[in-house]
TrEMBL record:
Protein name: Transposase
Superkingdom, taxonomy of origin: Bacteria
Gene3D superfamilies membership: Transposase IS200-like (3.30.70.1290)
UniProt-listed GO biological process terms: DNA transposition
UniProt xrefs under Pfam families: Y1_Tnp
NCBIfam families cross-referenced by the UniProt entry: transpos_IS200
GO molecular function: DNA binding; transposase activity
Transposase IS200-like domain span: 3-117
Length: 123
């Protein structure tokens, strides 16, 4: 899909795994993440989530920093959620995140897994 890229599956939870992301909040969050990715030239392949976490699949280029991408996606999305849905400061992500590389042969499987979060978590 992208030349000279490492594909990353990143997952991060809400603070204390609290179920902050109801259907409306999740949609705001997903739209925000897509906007942030576009603004920061993050090559986002798939994004979805559940009530207490988000999954992203993106291509990490040679000049990209995993830590910066996590900082932008988590930081900006929490600000947007607090501005548009929650009282200021009420919503926050946990500090941690999980990230692993995904081989080209795994891409479609991981994309399908992310796309089907509602089924995976029986929402």
């Amino acid at each position: 899909m992208y030349k000279n890229a490492v594909y990353i599956h990143m997952v991060w939870p809400t603070y204390k795994r609290l179920e902050f992301l109801n259907e409306e909040a999740l949609q705001i969050c997903l739209n925000a993440l897509k906007l942030i990715a576009k603004e920061k030239n993050i090559r986002l392949l798939e994004v979805n989530g559940s009530v207490d976490h988000i999954h992203c699949l993106f291509a990490l280029g040679p000049q990209d920093s995993l830590a910066k991408i996590a900082f932008w996606l988590k930081g900006r999305s929490s600000r947007i959620l607090n501005q548009m849905y929650y009282e200021e400061g009420e919503f926050k992500w946990a500090r941690n995140y999980y990230a692993r590389s995904v081989s080209f042969s795994e891409l479609s499987t991981v994309q399908e897994y992310i796309r089907n979060q509602a089924l995976n978590h029986k929402l």
